[in-house]
Amino acid sequence: MEFQATEEAGVFTGWPEEGNRFLLVCDPFTFPADLLLRELDRRQPGVTVTGGMASGGVETAESQLFLGDRVVSSGGVGARLLQRSRGVARWDPATR
């Protein structure tokens, strides 16, 4: 998932249109999670997002996020959480 700044505000790419529960980890230098959460609250009231900011880097491109078999150093990675079955949440690794 990435954020592209525009003259007026910005555009998020890679957010799935379906689902209402997500796990999200973002790079603090390249991804404005606060803006995403505000936009989701406006567009998809009731959506649940759990996660946090990646740590370990002290400047841009030092944090490492895992997306499938790739390592990325910007944006956000996540998973759409599917239905609960016997106390275990299933997830969809295609979310990025």
Question: Can you give a write-up of this model?
Answer:
It is globular, with a radius of gyration of 14 Å. The model has no long low-confidence stretch (mean pLDDT 82). The protein has one helix at 33-43; strands at residues 2-5, 10-13, 21-26, 48-53, 65-67, 70-72, 76-85, 88-92. With 96 residues, the chain is mainly β. The chain has one domain. A four-stranded mixed beta sheet has the order 4-3-7-8, with no helix packed on it.
Characterize the biggest β-sheet: 4 strands, mixed
Shape assignment: globular
Query: How much beta, percentage-wise?
Result: 35-45%
How far the N terminus sits from the C terminus, by CA atoms, comes to: 5 Å
Estimated helix fraction:
10-25%
Class from helix and strand fractions: mainly beta
Task: Note the topology.
Elements: E1 2-5, E2 10-13, E3 21-26, H1 33-43, E4 48-53, E5 65-67, E6 70-72, E7 76-85, E8 88-92
Parallel strand pairs: 3-4
Antiparallel strand pairs: 1-2, 3-7, 5-6, 7-8
Keywords summarizing the entry:
96 residues; mainly beta; 4-stranded mixed β-sheet; two-stranded antiparallel sheet; 1 helix
